[in-house]
Amino acid sequence: MHIVIIPGTNRTGSLSILLAQHAAKDYEAIGHTVDVLLLDLEPDYLAGSAYKEPTPAITARVQRFLAADGVVFVVPEYNGSFPGILKLYLDTLPYPQGFDRRPCAFIGLAAGQFKGLRAVEHLQGVAGYRNALMYPNRLFIGEAWKQFTPEKTLGDPELAKRLLAQAKGFVRYIEGTAQLRDDAT
């Protein structure tokens, strides 16, 4: 099974990227291939023609998403929602095949007490509108800066267990929804 993990920001030094890398190791440890799709988007994405006439760089990133059996979004909360760079990327995904019947899992993180809940729910609104299959066991992480050691590794063993449990459950969910995807073709 091939899992694409998207840390929902391009911010330098982002904890979302560290968390996505940790999640990638979990999926690899349970026997799956992983592509961590960073949102270091080319200036092509800002062109007015990006949607109708995508450049090879845009097409390549879209194809990486479309190759996924399941997508994991690691979503930081910025100003009560998910980052604009993530929305910009999602807007280049083709309709309907971008999300239609594609299994998606969500991990929210934030500096504050809401633990990325608003960001994940806003993103789920977009994914739901596009007919994604949303894995119901979301993870929310507050006080994100406290979750990593100075060496940039995950410091909380309970959080590590929760992340691994989500990965195992999401794989079962992908397998369980295969018939829904097959029926669509």
Biggest sheet statistics = 6 strands, parallel
Low-confidence stretches: none
| Proportion in β-strands | 15-25%
CATH class annotation = Alpha Beta
Using only CA atoms, what is the Rg?
16 Å
* Mean pLDDT level: 93
Shape: globular
The strand count comes to 6
What class, by secondary structure content? alpha/beta
CATH topology: Rossmann fold
Distance between the termini: 19 Å
Count the DSSP helices: 6
Q: How many individual domains?
A: 1
N-to-C order of helices and strands:
EHEHEHEHEEHH
Helix content: 25-40%
CATH H-level superfamily? Flavodoxin domain
CATH architecture classification: 3-Layer(aba) Sandwich
Quaternary structure type: single chain
Task: Please tell me about this protein's structure.
By secondary structure, the protein is of the alpha/beta class. The chain has one domain (2-184): Rossmann fold, CATH 3.40.50. Helix content is 39%, strand content 16%. The chain contains 6 helices and 6 strands; from the N terminus they run E-H-E-H-E-H-E-H-E-E-H-H. Strands 1, 2, 3, 4, 5 and 6 form a 6-stranded parallel β-sheet that branches. Strand 1, helix 1 (15-29) and strand 2 (33-36) form a beta-alpha-beta unit. The longest helix has 20 residues, at 157-176. The chain starts with a strand and ends with a helix.
Task: Give the tags.
alpha/beta, Rossmann fold, 185 residues
Q: In short, what is this structure?
A:
This protein has 185 residues and is an alpha/beta fold. 39% of the residues lie in helices and 16% in strands. Strands 1, 2, 3, 4, 5 and 6 form a six-stranded parallel sheet that branches.
